[in-house]
Design goal:
Largest sheet: 5 strands, mixed
Distance between the termini: 47 Å
Strand content: 25-35%
CATH superfamily of the largest domain: Oxidoreductase, molybdopterin-binding domain
Shape: globular
Helix content: under 10%
Number of helices: 6
Number of domains: 2
Number of strands: 23
Order of helices and strands: EEEEEHEHEHEEHEEEEHEEEEEEEEEHE
Radius of gyration: 21 Å
CATH topology of the largest domain: Sulfite Oxidase, Chain A, domain 2
Bound molecules: ligand MTE, molybdenum atom
CATH class of the largest domain: Alpha Beta
C-alpha cells in the first residue's frame, strides 16, 4: 500500500477519495481570506511521497542537457525570498454543478471547495533559472519554450516559458505556506506556485525542472486538464487538438446566505450594518479570475437572474505584483426582492464574466466549470 505513509488529515475536510486523498474545504470554512493550512483543500493524484527536507535537492536541466543542482538550504540562502497571497483552484472546482446543470461530467464531483487561499513564501523561479545559466531577459530563447516540473511521486506538468520568466509573473519555488513549512499534503518541502494558472501546474514535492522545446508529456498536461466542445467525448478524440489549461477564467461562488437583522454583526467580514433598518438576507462568497486579472465587480440576483444588485468587495490585503488572490464579497438583499433563487456572477478587469448556464459550457472532463452559481432560497422551498 503506497499510501500507508500519507499524513493524517483534519476531520473537517470533506473527503471524496481517501487513496489518493482528494478532500475539499467545507463551505463553512471558505469564508476566511486566508485558508488555514489544516483545511486547505487537498488534490493528490497519487500517494504523498516521503521527501527529506534537509537533504532534498532540486535539479534544473537546461536545453543543452547541462544540469544544475540546488539543495533546499542553498535555494534559501542564495536567492531573495518573497511573498505572494495566491489562490489555488482545481480545474474541477464546482464540477458537481456542471453534472447537475447539464449532464454527468467525468471526475471527482467537487462542490465549491476545491479552492483555497494562502500566503506563500519562496524564491523566484526566474532568479533560479538565471543562476542556472538561462538568459532570462532574452527576447527569444532557442530550444526553451516550456518549463516542465517533475514531482517526487511521478506527477508532472509544465508552463510556457513566458510565464516562468516574466518579471511580474511571480512564479515561485515555495517552501512556506502561511508562515510555516509546507505541510506534507501541500508539497513538503518544495513546490512550484504558478499564480493565476490552474492549480494543476503548481507541482508539489518538486524534484526537477526541465527547460524544453516541448510541454510535459504527462497525462496531466496532454489529456486530463483540457476543455473540449460540449458535443465532444473521449471516443475518437484527438487530445492534441486542444491546448492544456493554463490561465483560468472568472469564477465565483456563494459561501453563505443568512438572515440578518439591524443588530447583527458579522465578525468574519468585520461587517457592521449601520444602514440596516429592517431584517434582510446577507449573501457572501468568493470571486477570482486567472492571469493576474482583478475582480472588479460582483453581481447578485435574488430572483434567479431577473434583477441584480452589486456586492461589496472586501478590502483584504494581498501580496504580489498582480491579482493572484480571491476577493471576498458580501451583499445585503432586501426581503421584498428575495425570490426563490440566489445567483452570483463576477466580472474581471478584462470585462470577462461567467456563462449563464452549463449547457453550452459542458465539457466531458468537467473542467473550468464556472457558470453562474445558483442556490435555491429560501432553503426550505
Ligand atoms: N503535484 C503533484 N506532485 N502531485 C499532484 O497530484 N496535483 C495538482 C497540483 N500539483 C498534484 C500536484 C492538482 S490537480 C492540484 S488542483 C493542486 O496540486 C492541488 O494542490 P493542493 O493539494 O496543495 O491544494
Ligand atoms: Mo486539480
Amino acid at each position: 500500500d503506497p499510501f500507508v505513509n500519507d499524513p493524517p488529515r483534519d476531520s473537517s475536510l470533506i473527503q471524496h477519495t481517501e487513496k489518493p486523498c482528494n478532500a475539499e474545504t467545507p463551505t463553512s470554512l471558505l469564508d476566511t481570506f486566508i485558508t488555514p493550512n489544516e483545511v486547505f483543500y487537498v488534490r493528490n493524484h497519487l500517494w504523498v511521497p516521503e521527501v527529506e527536507g534537509t537533504t532534498h535537492t532540486l535539479t534544473v536541466e537546461l536545453p543543452d542537457g547541462n544540469e544544475k543542482e540546488y539543495t533546499l538550504a542553498e535555494l534559501k540562502s542564495k536567492f531573495a525570498p518573497f511573498h505572494i497571497t495566491a489562490t489555488l483552484q482545481c480545474s474541477g472546482n464546482r464540477r458537481k454543478h456542471m453534472s447537475a446543470g447539464a449532464r454527468h461530467a467525468a471526475g471527482l464531483q467537487w462542490d465549491i471547495g476545491a479552492i483555497s487561499n494562502a500566503k506563500w513564501t519562496g524564491v523566484r523561479l526566474r532568479d533560479v533559472l538565471r543562476d542556472a545559466g538561462v538568459d532570462v531577459d532574452a527576447r527569444y530563447l532557442e530550444d526553451a519554450k516550456h518549463v516542465q516540473f517533475v514531482g517526487a511521486e511521478a506527477y508532472g506538468a509544465s508552463i510556457p516559458i513566458d510565464k516562468a520568466l516574466q518579471a511580474r509573473g511571480d512564479v515561485m519555488l515555495a517552501y512556506e505556506m502561511n508562515g510555516r513549512a509546507l505541510p506534507r499534503d501541500h508539497g513538503y518541502p518544495l513546490r512550484v506556485l504558478v499564480p493565476g494558472h490552474t492549480a494543476a501546474r503548481s507541482v508539489k514535492w518538486l524534484e526537477k525542472i526541465i527547460l524544453s522545446e516541448e510541454e510535459s508529456q504527462s497525462q496531466w498536461q496532454q489529456r486530463d486538464y483540457k476543455c473540449f466542445g460540449p458535443n465532444q467525448t473521449g471516443k475518437d478524440l484527438d487530445w492534441s487538438s486542444a491546448p492544456a489549461i493554463q490561465e483560468t477564467p472568472v469564477q465565483s461562488a456563494m459561501t453563505s446566505i443568512k438572515e440578518v437583522s439591524p443588530g447583527s454583526f458579522d465578525a468574519s467580514r468585520e461587517l457592521q450594518k449601520p444602514g440596516l433598518t429592517e431584517d434582510a438576507v446577507q449573501v457572501a462568497g468568493y470571486a477570482l479570475s486567472g492571469g493576474g486579472r482583478e475582480i472588479i465587480r460582483v453581481d447578485i440576483s435574488a430572483d434567479g437572474g431577473s434583477t441584480w444588485q452589486q456586492a461589496v468587495l472586501l478590502p483584504d490585503e494581498a501580496e504580489g505584483q498582480q491579482s493572484w488572490s480571491w476577493k471576498r464579497w458580501h451583499a445585503i438583499v432586501s426581503r421584498p426582492v428575495v425570490g426563490s433563487e440566489m445567483v452570483v456572477k463576477a466580472i474581471d478587469d478584462g470585462y470577462n464574466t461567467q456563462p449563464e448556464s452549463y449547457v453550452g459550457q459542458y465539457n466531458f472532463r468537467g473542467n473550468l466549470t464556472t457558470a453562474w452559481h445558483r442556490v435555491r432560497y429560501p432553503f426550505s422551498e
